[in-house]
Write a sequence for this structure.
């Protein structure tokens, strides 16, 4: 086991990692930027070094200062958390070059999964289902043939596309030629580049992801799936749960098997997540995240596994202590992200001082945060200030518990997502379970804006 | 104002300045006059270039004291890097007079010696660090009276 | 289900019960005494009524005011929590007479289990093993015979006894006559009453208790055992855990079966606990607590069951939703009681103001409390200010987690049990598991007092 | 002092007094003079007897005002019980003069009418409650000027 780990991150995830280290008996080194001096991660760590001013480029992305901190403090490993340098293969390499263990997969795997095209190619070769897509289509006739073979509906997309320009959904073969011509004309006009390709249209997909963890000896297990379909219009996740509700048992089995097969194919080590779009019984690989994720606690709660501790253990060269046969989810877990932002004003971030901070407690409630009353939310970083996670025997019990927990939560001084998320949890669609990714933006938010009499985001 | 307060205010202002597009920033109020200048143009944090140097001039604007002339607050030379501090030879001590800009020390980080300069002549009013000490970003190293 | 429940209690258990009600969608009425006006249970409840001044006789034991509060607020049930009126059969009866459901067993069961002699007689008749004991022994010869039959070691006790006077341990039959004579003389001298009886001496017992819960239709299940052997010299519990460590599987099975059989024998309804002394593979019934217990969260964490919600459900006439076959403990849970008292001064209670209050968070940590920063600990009530409960996959993991959690806990303004309990958790004996009840008082505390250079408690 | 402050101080003192062995307690300071007397001996809370009555006399000791005589603070009559308040007939209102000790209202609790008395003559300075209202322990019901 490591003697001392440097945590190359801030916020709740830095606190989370320090907790895992403490429980493993490993000393911790925190890094912080000037405005984070009073943050909980600085207080909880054994040592803490200021690595730069507020802007991330000069502090949390300041590779020389971070590596230097690791070296002068005598750390033997670096945990990158999520965001910042977590999926920076170069950083992982530099760390290794300086004799520091990077707690994550190999730089090569980080790099290949970081490039979406490479990742899809590798996954396709490993037999993982990906969204079917063509190369550039030379003519409308060729396009028609490809689309017929792919099966409708399809999406005609401009290679130079963006913002929906030069994009057309086609649900019936008879409409293909017209749609192709319109898309081409629009692409020409918008980008001066009329080249098109065709992709299978995934109808009303849900965002389902599977947690995997592997060791250096070829063992790899999955820790089930998470449903992360409640996303802001910017596609940032807002509410996550495990297991995925209202999902066919066969699909769940397929997701788990696919995730483990994909992990094996890339000889994956450490914790990672395979993100899928799920539509009906169809499953499509989107991307693989080669790091711990914000929403990992819902998995921890249903599997009773400390994923961050496992990350550290396998990085230290221990064999995975988890056996797939012994891993069964118990009950249901939900996470709500408390962000300092105004959901009814397009989730505009709200910097400021937290005049009052009170978090919930009692049975089945977990709070991960780095703030206390009086904390200042600096403008430089993401707006998440806490994660409230609950566990219940049933999904309905977990929803009731989250409603109760959010009712106990009090944040004063900045607008937050608390009330918005509480309302979402109370909606009939969420309670039924299994909403598609677009639901929040396309259905829920306009309805809410109408009810509140405010402009839609 | 205590030195700590000065350092904290300088840091906050220097930070705001650094990320701004400004070439020069002057702040005056009842007890502090502060001027920030870039020693070279700001090239952006993500370019991999070292952070811009910031020259700090601190001057008290308190009413003249017994001597009839304002007493200048010393410049605080801080570390831009995390590393191990080594004094340059010959080692400067408190009271040492600097004829010109000179290298006072270097911060050793990742095997590279990063010089810490006096940024002009003056008198070494204080040495806040010892040889071989780990230093963090923004840590005060020397105070120089101009 | 009930519409509105009055919580006839204060402190963390009142908050705990309000949380269960909220999650069940039941409205809540809090009662409070004048000095508890700012307590969290008052803030979290839907309604709150002051029922009297600080002294418990005039507030939390003020039956007329409590019943009147229930009636004028329109409550249809009363949850008594623990302590105060929780095991007061008369109160349960009065509540029922006023059309209020008392959330607990029937007044008759409360009364019979509340009388220790009656409880032992009933349990003995039901085949539950109790500490063997004789009636008054007429002569030394009769005593010798009884002792030989019981098997040594035995305890000779004065019927008028107390404080160890007139009490003698006898480990060998040859020493009986002398010990009997000495005890008799001592009892005569101390109490002017030389009558003696003989009890089997339980060697180095552990305090193990079993949680049961029954419904109104004859279903009863157990939720496993808790080890509560870490007790203050006053025999108040300080650290509890589930499951019991270092305990023979056969003994555990016997405890579970005995508890369910005992529950069935008294037609037990609602939640209750059977307390046993365990010595080697021998098990002796001590008493049954006919209420929720302080340490119920360790059971909740390993079984994933909300015991307070279950109490409310069965009291509302629902059939028990728990099947014994589906109830399996997962991992290990530990509870530490944070009391405002000085462990190194005989656990002297410390009233005062909590200048700073910070509780731990993160994975596997549960906090039950009624205090926030600035709270005043009134002198009228027990000194417990919070319970920190942790869950881990293994006992070692749970101990490491508790150590971490206690390290994050900060209470300023009064002395607390935090540091003391942290030291106990770090001791070799606790880590090994299975210490006897007397260990803390007889071994640990003197050793600690020596090390600290302070007088033993 | 506001009325709320007076009520809070009276409550705190009355509570300390109630659990004490004292028969009479007098408190004087710059802005408050307060005397607590038992109307019957304290018999203990656990005996099932009703809580002892406490008579409260409040008197301002502020320097005499414009009128040349100290203005007396009114007595606050509070509820000892949780129940529903009912006015006694004839109903008293603000300004009503009481010739003698009389029953102003009763608190109905568990089917029993518990009288609330004026504890002597005076003028009803304020009525804090309405008929049929649930009241809690210590809730101010009437203010009586003596």
């Amino acid at each position: 086991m490591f003697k001392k780990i440097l945590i190359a991150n801030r916020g709740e995830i830095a606190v989370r990692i320090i907790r895992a280290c403490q429980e493993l008996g490993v000393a911790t080194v925190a890094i912080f930027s000037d405005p984070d001096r009073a943050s909980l991660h600085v207080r909880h760590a054994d040592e803490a070094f200021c690595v730069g001013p507020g802007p991330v480029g000069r502090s949390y992305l300041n590779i020389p200062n971070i590596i230097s901190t690791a070296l002068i403090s005598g750390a033997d490993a670096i945990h990158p958390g999520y965001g910042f340098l977590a999926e920076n293969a170069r950083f992982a390499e530099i760390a290794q070059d300086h004799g520091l263990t990077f707690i994550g997969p190999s730089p090569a795997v980080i790099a290949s999964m970081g490039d979406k095209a490479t990742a899809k190619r590798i996954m396709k070769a490993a037999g993982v289902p990906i969204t079917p897509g063509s190369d550039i289509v030379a003519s409308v006739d060729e396009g028609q043939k490809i689309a017929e073979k792919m099966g409708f509906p399809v999406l005609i997309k401009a290679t130079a596309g963006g913002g929906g320009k030069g994009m057309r959904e086609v649900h019936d073969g008879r409409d293909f030629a017209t749609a192709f011509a319109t898309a081409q004309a629009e692409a020409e006009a918008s980008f001066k580049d009329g080249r098109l390709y065709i992709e299978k249209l995934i109808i009303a997909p849900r965002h389902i992801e599977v947690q995997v963890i592997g060791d250096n000896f070829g063992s790899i297990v999955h820790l089930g799936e998470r449903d992360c379909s409640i996303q802001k219009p910017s596609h940032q996740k807002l509410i996550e749960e495990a297991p995925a509700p209202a999902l066919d048992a066969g699909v769940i089995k397929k997701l788990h098997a696919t995730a483990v097969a994909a992990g094996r194919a890339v000889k994956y080590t450490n914790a990672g997540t395979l993100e899928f779009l799920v539509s009906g019984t169809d499953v499509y690989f989107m991307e693989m995240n080669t790091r711990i994720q914000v929403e990992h606690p819902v998995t921890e709660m249903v599997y009773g596994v400390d994923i961050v501790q496992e990350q550290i253990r396998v990085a230290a060269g221990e064999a995975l202590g988890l056996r797939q046969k012994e891993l069964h989810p118990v009950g249901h877990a939900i996470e709500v992200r408390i962000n300092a932002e105004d959901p009814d004003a397009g989730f505009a971030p709200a910097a400021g001082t937290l005049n009052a901070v009170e978090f919930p407690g009692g049975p089945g409630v977990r709070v991960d945060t780095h703030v206390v009353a009086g904390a200042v939310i600096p403008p430089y970083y993401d707006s998440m200030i806490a994660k409230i996670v609950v566990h219940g025997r049933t999904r309905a019990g977990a929803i009731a518990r989250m409603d109760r927990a959010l009712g106990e939560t009090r944040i004063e001084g900045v607008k937050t997502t608390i009330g918005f998320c509480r309302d979402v949890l109370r909606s009939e669609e969420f309670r039924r379970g299994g909403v598609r990714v677009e639901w929040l933006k396309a259905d829920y938010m306009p309805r809410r804006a109408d009810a509140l009499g405010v402009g839609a985001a | 104002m205590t030195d700590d307060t000065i350092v904290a205010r300088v840091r906050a202002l220097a930070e705001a300045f650094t990320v701004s597009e400004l070439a020069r920033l002057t702040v005056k109020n009842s007890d502090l006059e502060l001027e920030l200048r870039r020693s070279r143009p700001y090239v952006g944090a993500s370019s991999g270039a070292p952070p811009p140097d910031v020259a700090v001039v601190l001057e008290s604007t308190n009413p003249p004291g017994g001597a009839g002339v304002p007493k200048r607050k010393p410049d605080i030379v801080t570390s831009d890097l995390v590393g191990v501090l080594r004094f340059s030879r010959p080692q400067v001590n408190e009271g040492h007079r600097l004829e010109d800009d000179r290298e006072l020390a270097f911060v050793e980080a990742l095997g590279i010696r990063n010089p810490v300069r006096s940024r002009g002549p003056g008198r070494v009013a204080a040495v806040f660090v010892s040889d071989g000490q780990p230093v963090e970003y923004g840590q005060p190293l020397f105070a120089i009276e101009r």
